[in-house]
Design goal:
Number of helices of chain B: 4
Number of strands of chain A: 0
Order of helices and strands of chain A: HHHHHHHH
Shape of chain A: globular
Order of helices and strands of chain B: HHHH
Structural class of chain B: mainly alpha
Largest sheet of chain B: none
CATH topology of chain B: Helix Hairpins
Number of helices of chain A: 8
Mean pLDDT of chain B: 88
Structural class of chain A: mainly alpha
Shape of chain B: elongated
Radius of gyration of chain B: 17 Å
Radius of gyration of chain A: 21 Å
Number of domains of chain B: 1
CATH architecture of chain B: Orthogonal Bundle
Distance between the termini of chain B: 57 Å
Strand content of chain A: under 5%
Largest sheet of chain A: none
Number of strands of chain B: 0
Largest interface: A-B, 88 and 76 residues
Helix content of chain A: over 70%
Oligomer: heterodimer
CATH class of chain B: Mainly Alpha
Strand content of chain B: under 5%
Chain lengths: 167, 104
Amino acid sequence: MQALFFATAAITIAAATLGVSRKIAVHGLLWMLVAFLGIAHTMWLLGATFAAALMLSVYAGAVAMLFLFVVILFDIGTMAASAEARQLTAAAWAAPLLAGGALAGVLLAALPAPQGSSIPVDAKMTGLAMYGPYAVAAELASFLLLAGLAGAFHIGRRRTLAAEGSP
Amino acid sequence: MTSLPPEYGLGLAMALFGVATAGLLARRSVLMIVLCLELMLAAAGLALVAASAKHGNAQGTVGWILLLAMAASELSIGLVLVRRLYEATGTLDLDALADRGGEA
């Protein structure tokens, strides 16, 4: 179990590192997809099977596909790659790596020593909490999703100046 | 019953958050910055799930579901804004956009 976790963690961190550093957006996105799958597997190893399924369907499914469609539809990848290729030098990475490494170091230093084993949390427990004590929070989440839907539709509408009647 | 200590998952979440922070600071393409933000949110979600596994109750998982709803809304609005930005300016490079001084 532990060897499986360490293999997954190594793959996930390597894929995330490659994902944030690729110059072509599609390549970074596909590496990030591997990182998302690694996070889902870690959740599975922690006994949170329902959370892992959500991670797979929402992140690896919806989020990555949405990114892929945007990149493909607008040919942003090759366009941005040429501009970023000049800027992303080793010197440009030094300060961000220092900051990110310091943040991760401080967080990992505060990590308590591993003790005990994970307790599985399944869909039934989650559902009972979600529609019991956290029913208001579930309603708020649905409000948020509706606002996201309406906002995306409104901002993304293809509008012409004549149709809006502006000068 | 799984034998993996939940602190391991917490540690992976912290390392991923650091990687995503480095990417967020280094990249200049708006699209890659949004992608790094998504990785940060996923790392925070892994920390919530690890906390849920530590205590054996569903509160962390409920937080993870709320985080998923927030990430989905943020991503849909964010990607539409990226598209509008690209249509209006023809570039997604933050340095190039900063040089415009807010004219576009």
